Amino acid sequence: MKEVPVWEKTTLTLEEAAAYTGIGENRLRDITNDEQNLVLWVGTKRLIKRRALEKYIDRTYSV
């Protein structure tokens, strides 16, 4: 199976989002606890919506 590049994925795991943005996994976990529109839950698995995360970063002054 061919692996999809991170910048083309719709959702990212915490590890992928941390590598993609340079924001630590713990901070991303805190952000997604507060900003529920950034997260898609698949059972207990937290997937971060990539485009929503990019928009959040664009409009945020500090993380």
Describe what this molecule looks like in 3D:
The chain has 63 residues and is α+β, with helices and mostly antiparallel strands. It is 44% helix and 17% strand. The chain is built from three helices and three strands; from the N terminus they run βααββα. It is globular, with a radius of gyration of 11 Å.
Structural key phrases:
63 residues, alpha+beta, Molybdopterin biosynthesis moea protein, domain 2, 3-stranded antiparallel sheet, 3 helices, 17% strand, globular
Number of strands: 3
- What class do helices, strands and sheet pairing give? alpha+beta
Low-confidence stretches: none
The general outline is globular
Let me know the largest β-sheet. 3 strands, antiparallel
What pattern of helices and strands is seen along the backbone? EHHEEH
